[in-house]
Design goal:
Blueprint (H helix, E strand, L loop, with lengths): L2 E6 L6 E6 L3 E5 L2 H7 L4 E7 L3 E5 L2 E6 L2 E5 L8 E4 L5 E5 L10 E6 L23 H9 L7
Parallel strand pairs: 3-10
Antiparallel strand pairs: 1-2, 2-5, 3-4, 4-9, 6-7, 7-8, 8-9
């Protein structure tokens, strides 16, 4: 069953819609993705290029001789990964979707660079943004609630 999902960058300048047939996503742990996102891995959804519509165009960074990455130059949001010569599929960052909750990881790529200690964190204490005083109080000071 195909469904249309939307997403974009943090500031809203870059937007996209994509027709998806699967909830499959994957983690890429390679050093390029770690550097590109500033995280321990990048979470991606692979989609056919033909099913993706950029409502407003992203900026592109050629991150290697074989790939480029869409991003927003205004807010810095990483939006994906694209092989230069493949042309059939593109990977979009899970976090850039408006509702990423449906996606389920099905694989690890770039496994040579996995940081094992970060994989199973279920026993760590959980702190919620809206009840973290250092965040909630700052938003209250400027007359706002904590964003979702």
């Amino acid at each position: 069953m195909t469904r249309t999902m939307t997403g974009g960058c943090q500031c809203g300048r870059v937007r996209y819609s994509v027709d998806l047939e699967s909830d499959d996503a994957y983690w890429c742990h390679c050093r390029m993705c770690q550097k590109a996102t500033g995280g321990i891995a990048a979470a991606f959804v692979q989609v056919p290029v033909a099913s993706l519509t950029w409502e407003s165009e992203p900026d592109w960074y050629q991150s290697s001789p074989i790939a480029r990455r869409p991003f927003c130059s205004a807010c810095g949001t990483p939006l994906g990964f694209d092989f230069l010569r493949q042309g059939k599929d593109i990977d979009l960052t899970v976090g850039s979707f408006d509702d990423p909750s449906a996606f389920k990881p099905v694989a690890h790529a770039g496994a040579e660079s996995i940081h094992e200690a970060w994989l199973d964190t279920r026993d760590l204490p959980r702190h919620y943004t809206a009840t973290t005083p250092s965040v909630a109080e700052r938003y209250a000071e400027v007359g706002l609630g904590v964003p979702e």
